[in-house]
Write a structure and sequence with these properties.
- With about 140 residues, the chain is an alpha+beta fold.
- It is built from 4 helices and 7 strands.
- The strands form 2 sheets. Strands 3-2-5-6-7 form a 5-stranded antiparallel beta sheet. A two-stranded antiparallel ribbon has the order 1-4.
- A hairpin with a 2-residue loop joins β5 and β6.
- α1 crosses α2.
- The radius of gyration is 20 Å and the shape is elongated.
């Protein structure tokens, strides 16, 4: 491929999402990237992505890692793992800053021997954690 006959080779126009997520160092291994895709933790433009889903410049990728969601836009397609500084040039990180620790709700502690939470208590816990109205698709 070349740019408008200029003889300058251009990079690939698309690549697999599991490979790109690994190449730009969002996961430590490509196997972890593929597993995240299979588990539904990777979304491209709002749609669940399989490991072989193709990603191109301009796509929005949402990746859930360690309980945090990273939101990045694809700025450049690369296929070989590179250094962190070069990898940072291939994406635009739009992840919102984490909530300060003072504002994070404390985890409710149950008295020892109190047993399992009731259905009402479980709903209250889910409501406090912000998981009360999720769609199950």
């Amino acid at each position: 491929m070349s740019i408008a006959g200029a003889g300058i080779p251009s990079g690939p126009t698309s690549t697999r999402v599991d490979r790109w997520v690994w190449v730009v160092r969002m996961t430590r291994t490509r196997a972890q990237a593929a597993a995240a895709c299979r588990a539904g933790h990777v979304r491209i433009n709002g749609d669940r992505a399989k490991p072989a889903t193709m990603v191109k410049v301009g796509d929005e990728i949402r990746l859930r890692v360690d309980g945090l969601e990273r939101i990045v836009d694809v700025a450049k397609i690369i296929e070989k793992r590179v250094g962190a500084t070069v990898a940072a040039e291939c994406l635009v990180d739009r992840t919102p800053p984490p909530v300060p620790r003072e504002h994070v709700a404390l985890i409710a502690q149950r008295d020892r021997g109190a047993g399992r939470p009731t259905k009402r208590e479980r709903r209250e816990i889910d409501h406090l954690r912000g998981r009360d109205e999720q769609s199950h698709s």
